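Hi team,

As requested, here is the filled-out complex form for the pyridoxal-5'-phosphate run. I kept the field names the same as last time so the parser does not choke. Let me know if anything looks off before we queue the next batch.

— J.
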Amino acid sequence: MEEYDGPIDVEVARLVDMEESRQSSQLNLVASENYSSPAVRRYEGCIFADKNAEGYPGERYVSGCGYADQLEELAVERAKSAFGCEHANVQSMSATIANFAIMNELFKTGDKLMAMRLQDGGHLSHGAPFHASGRRFRWCFYGVSRANEQLDYDNVRSVALENRPAAIICGGSAYPRLLDYEKMHEIAREVGALLWVDLAHTAGLVVGRVVPSPFPYADIATTSTHKTLRGPRGGGLVLCKEILAKRIDRAIFPGLQSAPKMDMIASRAVLLSEVQTECFQEYAKEVLRNAKALERGLLDEGVHLVSGGTSSHLLLLNLSKSNTSGLDVEQALLEADVVSNKNPVPFDTLPPSKSGGLRIGSAALTTRGFEEEQCFELGVLVGLVVASGCAPSKVADLKSFVRDNTKGLPLFNPRWMA
Ligand SMILES: *Cc1c(COP(=O)(O)O)cnc(C)c1O
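And here is what came back:
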């Protein structure tokens, strides 16, 4: 690889250094973040960054794409084998963009689509009124039941029957439970809708074989690469049945994007090999184990968890009965060097800027090497902060735990080097 030893931009370098020490000294509980391996990140910004390989392998709009073709074919093959699907597209710049590109290609303006309500854990690219998807199509939403805050499949079915959507999208960004893809598939078939699974959060758990795969039920699955899949930010994958392959490829290019970012594809090819190792399966298991340990710690302190707990890497704390808001707790945790995010909860009465909930996850923590015992203790300490209404003494206890448990700990634990 090309080495660089010329002058450095001191302003940018300073910020990079500061960010590095921030990441090292803080504990990352953001459910949508992770740390990618040095092997994967090494190829972000490699020589392929300058190659304009507009088009697809074998049909590019510029010459000199021989190696780019081989690289993209390799990434596609690895994606298909990792997810066990018939076709893969690796060109999308993000899952959000992939989602809109697909809607744009497969459906007409005003078509009716169906997804999980944002407040119940859905995603903005699934028809939020302030997102392009929400403006372009008509939407109907399903959600969780008040009784147990879990997805109500009777509600899914009745909304589907009433609206006859062209597609049913499932998968969200703040739903702690797994989805029953078989049941969703049955409902989709009953109303003649495509079943589209947005795997952004759980892709790594699927590939790591610790939760069920959406295939063969899903017609299409989309995912980001930087959550449980443990890649760098950016980069979306589209996985689909062969019958949709041509339309999906056309949706991404030329439907919405121009040339792909080939250095990103190089890095994702490495990632897609890494996630097929036994070491990654161990990692995925540990992510679930650690989420359960956090759950136990929080429940011990009486914290209300949406849906009663978690079946994935993600937990959503419902603070509505605890006299605090998501914003308050997010800020208190940050004082203790714990990074998280406020998040709406089902039936929230607070505006999103405050939010009645806090979302956390175990993926980044696990990459760092945290184990079950530590996660339990962390859950207890976070629980005490919540239960005390963010009392300074509880925040201080959490802060000293973070200091003791992150000192000298690399971001990507060597234990996970495949
Ligand atoms: C995070 C997320 C996305 C967005 O992924 P990006 O790659 O960041 O655009 C899309 N859908 C769901 C359900 C998500 O959770």
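Two things worth flagging: Residues 32, 94-96, 123, 125, 171-173, 198, 200-201, 224, 236 surround pyridoxal-5'-phosphate (CB under 6 Å). The CA atoms of residues 338 and 358 lie 12 Å apart.

Thanks,
J.
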